[in-house]
């Protein structure tokens, strides 16, 4: 991986938007950044209208001045291409370059992300502005890193997208016969006889073809990746030694395969915005960090954005208590981030995010928040030497974008929250002190002793063979309900589901049995299951626990284990509650030095401890005050 050029130690700073402020504030900004320990800022993310106020007319003077001041102040610049928000003149001149919603409505400018990534005019304009920036700033001494676009994820269902989708499908399937076979086209008379008959999965009368929807998400990820690569290659030609990235973002609305994207960036960068107002925000932060490290191949990455003073919950912004900003940052740093960046440096006076928290609040320097920002920023140089070694873990959780996308469909036997199922496994492990990596179903499993597959609904033949190889070689595989229900084309695996691995698990799943909401099913000496169960037929596996109630499933196997080669395969045929997963992990002897409310991460000789509780905690010989954090040498 490559790191910001000229930035020593851990990166600290955030998005800086000088074009929103009068020039007389810029010197104060640099002075206050230095006071706060800031050494890297992202510039120009949403500045296209200021850089190119009219077609072909450029104004770089203000940016020249800003970059000069930052360089003189010893602050590196993560310079962005501004393509996430085209200027109004562009969308008026090219209305077909605006994104189209699934209901066919073309959106208008007046917000962010108003672009159609498949529109030729937009792609050409993106290359042009990127080339202009590369030509002018490719060898600028302030340039530490290039930042392409912002938070890729806005899909479009336009005519442009349909044409590009058909090209993508032809490259993948080659023939219409192969497409019709993969999409089960004879159902509902969806057999295509010409490529032009294939449309984007826009609003229709009833349920969509799940294979069609899944392929369109895969296509959208690839289309956005091509947009990124076009700009990246222009920037690379101008400054070969400057790293280039884009900021990954996380959500059901983001059709991006981050496993695939990670190999195209010089470093993985991630924007972490927890959505829970309580301790689940810490759980979500740890989940985001472990995913980012895993996308980065187990190495270092960079937290590109977070909110300094608030958690953006579904109920509105919730103020962070004193010390919580530092603790959230340390969750990420301990798990591999090469720093802590924020949106944004100075809180804006106007615009849709005028109330978004910032490192420098509206009230200025003499505030609790800025004092906390400066205290933390000036602490980071003292711990920079502790992050050289990788995070230590031998447990992995499968992360499958295909399964996340496919389980969002409305055709399933019951609603499935794939992300919650993954997050549940992660948080129960975290509460038991276990730091886990994530890995793709087809990824390298060789370093792990335990691999957990939570509802890995879409499982290809290659993925199934990978899990079989891992288990046969001595690994312990734990899979939960609906794993291997369908293949990569959303076609059902016959004769027991499980990705064709009934011999691996020693069972057949014969029936899916969704249960009424709010009516948990007790398991013998094992807690309870809720909402989804399966009927399992033993074919050599041992029953670990049975259902204690529930019509068809009463006294039937709920959790099983089967020896296979040198390893063993566990199967959980239901959606366990947290306490039941904890009971299972106790059985598997999965535990570590952390505990609920206490993140403990080991990296080489160093141990990171983040105490989120309201009381003093001790780990080994290290005492950590309430709401604080520490880095210390591990005890022998």
TrEMBL record:
It is an enzyme of class 3 (hydrolase). Keywords: Glycosidase, Hydrolase. The keyword Hydrolase applies. It comes from Glycomyces tritici. This is Beta-galactosidase. Residues 15-380 form the Glycoside hydrolase family 42 N-terminal domain. Its EC number is 3.2.1.23. It catalyses: Hydrolysis of terminal non-reducing beta-D-galactose residues in beta-D-galactosides. Belongs to the glycosyl hydrolase 42 family. Residues 394-588 form the Beta-galactosidase trimerisation domain.
